[in-house]
Design brief:
The protein is mainly alpha-helical. The chain is built from twelve helices and no strands. It is a multi-pass membrane protein.
Length: about 425
């Protein structure tokens, strides 16, 4: 075809901007990687040049016979080892400080965990308070109304699920007994070919272990421990409620007070880092709520189609468990599989398991990458390590808040690195 006609020129004007716009993200990514590599290389080069200049000065003094006393007394150390040792003791100091901080937070987890949970709730519902303020409602009143609405929603969800479980508990117990009989028969006639004596021996060992565990220790001490846990839970609930209210009503004033505690030279970066962390936390919590709702609705649909009991209770459990990424919804989904096994048998349980896995794959590979942007994207390995660290430090509550904190920390680190890019300069004598 001829290239002179108007029909030939029109596709070029349409496709060229599209190709250029599609190539822009890849070029920006490559440019960012190249700039990061160059910046790191320049820092290392500047530090090596500084050590080299110091050594050259020492050699010059030694040639003149005026070598400093401290240089004459200590043996010569290669500058590479000198730099490595300087990095090593600084890293050890950072690790030690982090360990001390983790231990302190572990001892104060009754206060720290509720405050972090209040931050997560505040990040989720703060748009409602802002909307009420734009409607001429005082911010304190709007914050109080939003907190009451959140409490009412959570209480209604738990009440509805509890009533469903209480109504069907007796039927499920009967079906569980029948399921155990089927399992016993399968152990005898299946590939294991166990005898009644072997099965009874295992059951008796398990029963004796449970009885020994229940009788082990001082009963008064166990009652005291249970009472202490109950008091901690009640205190944590009140801390969450009051902290959420004040974060929503006076969050800007509280943050301004925290910024004023820092030195003047660090206030600007602290303020910008806090704002970036808050934006990241807000986006992460909203995305997590959407993912949790999708997981809960998807698994509830599968349970309803397979006629599995306790559909609402399963949905509530999956919704709450999905706030622990990767592991939470999967563990909650296994409850649906177990209920399906007890109620309908192994075939229905396997179908329910496949449905749970399909919903998890859709959420992990389709929904999360779409919802989570650059500032809140966390590598799966970092998620697993964060959850493990949270469990070690604060148990289940630590697993709940570990990933949002990791996302906020990642966002702050990227923000500070971008600020440092503007201040890094190549020294005049750094060129080789």
């Amino acid at each position: 075809m001829s290239s002179d006609g108007p029909q030939d020129h029109q596709p070029e004007s349409v496709t060229e901007p599209a190709s250029e716009s599609a190539a822009e993200p890849a070029e920006e990514t490559q440019r960012g990687r190249r700039e990061n590599t160059e910046r790191i290389a320049l820092r290392v080069l500047n530090q090596l040049n500084q050590v080299r200049r110091e050594r050259e000065q020492e050699f010059a003094h030694a040639a003149d016979g005026v070598l400093p006393r401290e240089s004459r007394d200590r043996p010569r150390v290669p500058y590479g080892i000198d730099v490595a040792s300087a990095w090593a003791w600084r890293l050890l100091l950072i690790v030690a400080a982090g360990w001390v901080l983790a231990k302190a937070l572990g001892h104060l987890q009754v206060v720290v965990i509720p405050i972090v949970v209040a931050l997560l709730i505040s990040a989720l519902v703060v748009p409602l308070v802002n909307l009420a303020e734009r409607m001429r409602v005082p911010r304190s009143v709007g914050a109080l109304l939003v907190v009451l609405v959140v409490v009412a929603i959570i209480a209604s969800m738990l009440t509805f699920a509890g009533r469903e479980v209480a109504a069907g508990a007796s039927d499920l117990a009967t079906q569980a007994a029948a399921g155990l009989d089927k399992l016993r028969s399968w152990l005898q006639t299946g590939p294991l070919h166990l005898t009644n004596n072997q099965i009874d021996g295992w059951l008796n060992s398990l029963q004796n272990a449970l009885v020994h565990w229940s009788k082990d220790g001082n009963p008064v001490g166990k009652v005291t421990a249970v009472g202490s846990i109950a008091l901690d839970v009640v205190a944590a609930m009140f801390i969450v409620l009051f902290s959420t209210y004040f974060f929503l009503a006076e969050g800007s004033r509280i943050w301004a007070w925290i910024v004023r505690l820092a030195p003047r030279s660090a206030r600007t970066r602290l303020d910008s880092s806090g704002k970036v962390a808050w934006i990241s936390l807000t986006q992460f919590v909203r995305a997590t709520v959407i993912v949790a709702a999708v997981d809960a609705i998807g698994i509830m649909i599968g349970a309803a189609v397979l006629d599995v009991p306790f559909v609402a209770a399963i949905g509530v459990l999956v919704f709450l468990g999905a706030f622990v990424p990767i592991l939470g919804a999967t563990v909650a989904g296994t409850v649906a599989v177990l209920i399906a096994f007890v109620d309908h048998g192994i075939v229905t349980a396997l179908i329910m398991l496949g449905w749970v896995v399909a919903v998890q794959q859709l959420e992990a590979h389709g929904l999360q990458p779409f919802l989570l942007g650059r500032w809140v994207r966390v590598h799966p390995l970092a998620v697993i390590l964060s959850i493990a660290t949270g469990v070690i430090v604060a148990g289940v509550a630590g697993a709940l808040v570990a990933v949002p904190l990791a996302a906020a920390t990642n966002a702050v680190a990227l923000h500070l690195a971008s600020l440092r890019e503007d201040t890094d300069q190549v020294e005049p004598d750094a060129a080789v």
